[in-house]
Design brief:
This protein has a four-stranded antiparallel sheet with strand order 2-3-1-4, covered by helices on one side. It is an alpha+beta fold. 66% of the residues lie in helices and 9% in strands.
Length: 309
């Protein structure tokens, strides 16, 4: 058995062990994220009847209009969407999303029950003359932090994310654009519930603050990430990236500036939500690798965007 084969088997063993720990960390952060997200709704947004985009915004409108709790509307809608996701997007994506959806249902119910024990809870935070604008900003910040934590853990909250992913798979429309269109429809539709443009304006303010908070959390603004990896184990790095992310790599020939020895550099581009996963894969395959990464404004080709003339 060659030394390279022994090294590869050792890498696989370390990957199996570390994957378990990483999975536990992801589940913990998904739970924390859903808890923070739910606090934003329960403390600031629901008491002030604030609307925002996404499936949660649509479910909130249902609660305002009928009194039916938004968490159960989300659970019912996501149950259908998760079946579509399983069919169209695969089991791994669906199982992690299912966990996030169930966590969201629990925390929304729990937080509303806690806040419901004290109807003046949000006024105690903002003062007797609380401002709706301040409530929508604080609620959006908590929402963004919570969802950012979920995205950083490779999770998804279902809802419009599933719809956008399915549309993106079959049509040349980016996920961000699909989400934007759906958000505009949901927030604009709230006008017909109260005949108030003020509600619509607050909804758009909430959406902007929420989106900014998510971007800050995941240190990205809807860009892809290019990794440049300097490693002696380039074959193992390439196969590990391909097997775990589905992305391909480019091997560039280089030379050490001091040693003048021939070297190969691995270059690959991944989606923003795969940044943490990539760092983990590189760390577990070659802990001595030297890695740089930076955001790219656009990536066009297989697995990314289609070039439009």
């Amino acid at each position: 058995m060659t030394s390279r084969r022994i090294h590869r088997e050792d890498v696989r063993r370390r990957l199996r062990n570390v994957h378990i720990l990483d999975f536990i960390k992801d589940m913990v952060f998904i739970n924390l994220g859903m808890g923070v997200y739910s606090l934003g709704w329960a403390i600031f947004m629901l008491p002030n009847k604030i609307v925002t985009g996404g499936g949660a915004g649509a479910a909130a409108i249902v609660q305002y209009a009928t009194g039916f709790p938004m968490q159960y509307t989300l659970l019912a809608v996501n149950s259908i969407l998760l079946l579509i996701a399983w069919w169209q997007l695969g089991g791994k994506f669906t199982l992690k999303t299912l966990y996030a959806v169930l966590s969201l249902t629990f925390y929304l119910d729990f937080c509303q029950r806690i806040v419901g024990m004290d109807p003046e809870f949000s006024r105690g935070i903002l003062g007797a003359h609380q401002e709706v604008a301040m409530s929508c900003i604080l609620g959006a910040v908590l929402n963004g932090i919570g969802i950012g934590m979920v995205f950083m853990s490779g999770g998804c909250t279902g809802g419009w994310d599933i719809v956008a992913s399915v549309v993106n798979k079959h049509r040349n429309v980016s996920i961000g654009r699909v989400l934007l269109y759906l958000d505009l429809v949901v927030i604009g539709g709230s006008y017909f519930l109260w005949n108030s443009w003020q509600t619509v304006v607050y909804g758009y303010i909430t959406l902007v603050v929420y989106t900014f908070a998510v971007d800050v959390m995941i240190n990205s603004s809807k860009q892809d990430i290019q990794f440049t990896i300097y490693t002696k184990e380039y074959d193992d790095i390439v196969s590990t990236i391909r097997e775990n992310t589905g992305h391909t790599c480019t091997l560039m020939h280089g030379e050490g500036g001091y040693s003048h020895k021939a070297a190969k550099v691995v270059v690959t581009i991944v989606h923003k939500n795969e940044q943490v996963q990539m760092l983990r894969l590189i760390r577990d395959t070659d802990p001595e690798a030297f890695v740089t990464f930076h955001r790219v404004e656009g990536a066009f080709g297989k697995g990314f965007n289609v070039i439009k003339a």
